[in-house]
Every structure is written in C-alpha cells, then in structure tokens.
Amino acid sequence: MAELTGLADDRALLGRTSTAERVADILRTRIADGFFPPGTRLSEDSIGGALGVSRNTLREAFRLLTHERLLVHELNRGVFVRVLTVEDVEDIYRTRALVECAVVRGLGGPPYAVDGLAGAVAEGQRAAGEGDWRGVATANIHFHRELVALAGSARTDEVMRSVFAELRLAFHIVDDPRRLHEPYLTRNLQILQALQRGDRDRAEHLLAGYLADSLTDMVEVYARRVADEGPGGGRAGASSS
Predict the structure, then answer these.
(1) Domain 8-81 classified CATH 1.10.10.10?
(2) Per CATH, which fold does 86-229 belong to?
(3) Domain coordinates of the chain in residue numbers?
(4) What pLDDT, in 10s, does the model give residues 28-66?
(5) What pTM did the predictor assign?
(6) 3-class DSSP string for 19-77
(7) Edge-to-edge strand ranges of the sheet holding 71-74
(8) Other CB atoms closer than 10 Å to residue 228's CB: what's the count?
C-alpha cells in the first residue's frame, strides 16, 4: 500500500517503551500529512506489522484517535479516517474563533513573544515560493498553533491540537489548495505585524475577520467537493460521523 511507505521507518521512534499514545502520535501525524486521506480504511495487519506493535496496542491507539474525532469505527467494516461534514467544518471554525480571539484579547502588555509566529510566516512564504501549497497549509496551522501558545496554557494547547488536526482532514479534500491558502499568507503577516507593534486590539480585529472569511471559503469549497463526490466523500457507504 502506497500510504504505508515510510511507516516502517517510524518503528524506530517507538523504542522499548512503546505505548498506544506513541503509536497514536505517529498515526496522527500521518493523517495530518495526508498519508492516510479522509475515507481511508486503516488495516490493523498492515499498520501493526509496519510499526511492530501488537493488535491490542494498535486498537488502543485507534480508540484514542477515534476519541479525537480523527477516526471512525464502522461495525463489521473496520476503522476509517473520518470524512468531515460541512457542519463539522462550521463547528471547528466556531471553536477556533472562540479560543483564538480570546487568546489575543487576553494577552498582557507588549512586547509579545512572537518569534514562533514570525517563523511560521516565513515558513509559509518559503513554501509558497516553491509552489508547495500543502506546505503553505501546514505553515498556516503552525501559525495558529503558535498564536494559541501565546496563552501559555497547556490545556488550551491540547484542546486546539485536536481542533487543528480535524481541520487538516478538511484541507485534504480541497481540490485547489492555492486558491484557498494563498490569501492567508498576507493576513497572517498582518496579524504578526500588529502584535509586533503591540497593537493587541488590531490583531484581534484582523484575526476575527480572517476566521470569518476562512470559514466562508472553506464551507464553499468543501461543500462543492463533497457534493461532487457524493456521500462519504468518495467512499461508498462511508460514515462521516
């Protein structure tokens, strides 16, 4: 299976202290990077063999990722990478607006620790220059993860890690990633510059508009793609909930 290419290399990451959580980390990354696209059935035998883990360990990892809403178990069919609905996308953006805007609003006085944000902006610009629009999407996620990290809250980081992972599921079915992601390179830069100036209110205003426009764009392209492919996002009989 092509999507298993390189997975055996990750076996070394498990070491002697292999746990379901570490297996879940590897699979979460593989899902986020698109190696297991939405609708893909995950084979216990193939993945367990590639990682060298027991069936019970793998099933526990699957359970963890199902709890994170990245996988779905279908009775008598197996475990699949979730296919999000339009309603899922809308809910993801509602959560993002609540959390991200609150983080910026709650910042103390400047200066702000924006090196991580600046690095993500530079990462996105490099990827765009190379025509790597998947890389631009990844840099965009990194930008918003760094933005949330400004709160200095491990709990908030954990919540948003799952939200951003779900968002990547939607990104993977978009047929024109350049049109979706390119405008936000400039908007990320504007938010960064506002925070560099110490203008928290301006940064929050820019962020709120960004998320509202991004929601509109995502729902438009996502709904069109789902409609084109039919129920299940191209996998007959697939469940998306």
Answers:
(1) yes
(2) Four Helix Bundle (Hemerythrin (Met), subunit A) (1.20.120)
(3) 8-81, 86-229
(4) 988 888 889 899 999 999 999 999 889 989 999 999 999
(5) 0.81
(6) CHHHHHHHHHHHHHCCCCCCCCEECHHHHHHHHCCCHHHHHHHHHHHHHCCCEEEECCC
(7) 41-42, 78-81, 71-74
(8) 11
